[in-house]
UniProtKB/TrEMBL annotation:
Residues 23-211 form the Electron transfer flavoprotein alpha/beta-subunit N-terminal domain. Heterodimer of an alpha and a beta subunit. Belongs to the ETF beta-subunit/FixA family. This is Electron transfer flavoprotein subunit beta. Keywords: Electron transport, Transport. It holds the Pfam family ETF.
Length: 249
């Protein structure tokens, strides 16, 4: 069974991003970039499925600038078999990514597609749902457990106040939540070996997809700064301030 995993190159989660002076976006020049953490979990899950003898081949796909190749090499070092880079300088929005994934799925015919539940840069949480809809496949989003059988997959989902398990007919789309697994540490020999694994490059035009953005970002702003706190002398003073100044009582 082929498994397709989508991996996005994003600003590393440890970086404190700065909003550009003109408010048009965040500054990513000279900033550390890494694989989206939810996508690392997606790759890890696919590798575990292969190790368990349930998956036969893992194909990782990334879309974006040339440097996404580094992200794909990391996924190959984690255990993916081959990679596809859809190279473009155009800003890709979730619908465009979903359309590209649909075309790749048509070529590769995977039985399972695993994505992160969201990319930590745009926080869209849309691509998995969109590609499932475009393909007409079932979707198990926010997975904390994936139980793959020959023709179905049971996905345990993290929902408000508990867990829900859904059974999907294959082929299906799964998006990962934080507790699904803990991605492995990539060892140096695997990084070296990953350099020799196949990496195919295509363009959105090769796949016949128009990736022109549909949405325009009007403004990006820093969160409001927290004002300094004060000390009160007594509980009575606290209650008075909450009542008269903060007006929350
Ligand atoms: P989003 O809908 O943007 O929050 O992204 C959800 C998931 O879709 C990510 O965790 C990735 O698995 C996948 N994805 C989004 N954008 C890309 C991209 N440019 N290349 C590869 N995968 C992507």
């Amino acid at each position: 069974m082929k498994v397709l995993v989508a991996v996005k190159r994003v600003v590393d989660y440890n970086v404190k991003v700065r909003v550009k002076a003109d408010g048009s976006g965040v500054d990513i020049a000279n900033v550390k970039m890494s694989m989206n953490p939810f996508d690392e979990i997606a790759v890890e899950e696919a590798v575990r499925l292969k190790e368990a003898g349930k998956a036969s081949e893992i194909i990782v796909v990334s879309m974006g600038v040339k440097q996404c190749e580094e992200t794909l090499r990391t996924a190959l070092a984690m255990g993916a078999d081959r990679a596809i880079l859809v190279e473009t300088e155009t800003e890709l929005q979730p619908l465009a990514v979903a359309k590209l994934l649909k075309e790749i799925a048509a070529k590769e015919a995977p039985q399972l597609m695993i994505l992160g539940k969201q990319a930590i840069d745009d926080d869209a949480n849309q691509t998995g749902q969109m590609v499932a809809a475009l393909l007409g496949w079932g979707q198990g989003t926010f997975a904390s457990k994936v139980d793959l059988a020959a023709e179905t997959v049971n996905v345990t989902r993290e929902i408000d106040g508990g867990l829900e398990t859904v059974k999907l007919a294959l082929p299906a789309v799964v998006t990962t939540d934080l507790r699904l697994n803990e991605p492995r540490y990539v060892k140096l020999p695997n990084i070296m070996a990953a350099k020799k694994k196949p990496l195919e490059k295509v363009s959105p035009a090769d796949l016949g997809v128009d990736v022109t953005p549909r949405l325009t970002t009007l403004k990006v702003a820093e969160p409001a700064k927290r004002s300094a706190g004060i000390k009160v002398a007594s509980a009575a003073e606290l209650v008075a301030k909450l009542k008269n100044e903060a007006k929350v009582l």
